[in-house]
Amino acid sequence: MRILFSLVFSILTVSLLKISFDERSISLLFLAGGVFAACMALLLRRYRALFVVLASTCVALAATEAATRWIFRPATALVTPVNTVSPVLNHRHTDIGLQTRPNVYAANLTDPSGRAIYDVIYTIGADGFRVTPRPVDDPLTRINLFGGSFTFGQGVEDEETVAAVLAEALSATEVRNFGQPGYGVHQAVAILESGRDTAGEINILLTSGNHVRRSDCSSRMAVSTPRYVRLPDGKVMRDGFCSNRVKTLLDQVLSRWLFYQWILASVTTAWELDADAWSLYAALVNRFIAISQERGQVAIVAQLPDYGAETRFAWKRFASTLLKDGHLVVDISLADAQGVLADKYVLDRRFDLHPSAEANRVRGLILAEYVRPILEDQAIGN
Fold first, then answer.
1. DSSP helix/strand/coil, 20
2. Does the pLDDT value for residue 268 go beyond 90?
3. How far apart are CA 379 and CA 173, in angstroms?
4. CA–CA distance, 87 with 267 (Å, rounded to integer)
5. Phi and psi for 216 in degrees, rounded to 5?
6. What does the mean pLDDT of the chain come to?
7. Claim: this prediction has a pTM higher than 0.70
8. How confident is the model at residue 78 (pLDDT cuts 50, 70, 90)?
9. With 0-12 CB in 10 A as exposed, 13-18 as middle and 19+ as buried, what is 42?
């Protein structure tokens, strides 16, 4: 009878595991662990007490996670609620990290009630980056944009990205979009160092303190991305990739564990202020500027919104340092003094704080006004 129960528990465990991975459900994953521990308690009498405790713990965690999702999910954006991309964005590993394969993708995001937050098209060119519409036949100048999902234009159409707005405002200028979701300053530097076609007059880095953790490999978004280390002289050097398969799997689980994320958000407020992480981030920004200047390009650092008070304060100090050193910094955050953006500037206040088409339009126009005198001066100089 014990063997029969063990067989039933084993089948149930495997079934729950499959469903948990298919549905990306942490509750079912914990429940599968509880069933497995119960099975072990039946088979291994010597360790029965231990496995009973494990089973009870797993069931309690499963119940806690289910309750947390039932209570908090309709009113919080701790995790993405429902996100489907059809076909799923197909990525490949490259020297700069994950890149989207060239294709046309339909992307949509819906809230728990089924309401569409966005339903858009992403066009990825042969170089693995998003296409900027309205190509110029004989461009007089070229601008390159670098950054993460804000630069890429997550949740908006091809013609609604910052790059597209900038290209429309500067009619004789080609604008290339080197942004990808999850990218940080370290990947902007890696792109410039990679030998890819980044020719042009101006390089604009769209960044904020939210990118600090990506740069030092501590963010789950940094897995398989270029790893840089800060040298004693303050410069940076490439040192392979941010890669740890065990950490990758653990991060994927933790990122979907809503109760854990809620606790983390409640007790963690100043991870962005880690001195070493900020020093590396600052060194990478300076490296981005230095490479651009060595190639005769103008480097501009464009400030995006920060979602933490500590991060905003630290980035303000960093921006002051850049300005003091004679570098170009432009604020395109669109946020008020408390760092809050108007509803019209985000896709959805509860479920997705990525920029709306209106936010991209305003940011693109701010950048256009900022770079126009620079382009005019260069034209006169030539």
1. helix
2. no
3. 12
4. 38
5. -105, 15
6. 82
7. yes
8. very low
9. middle
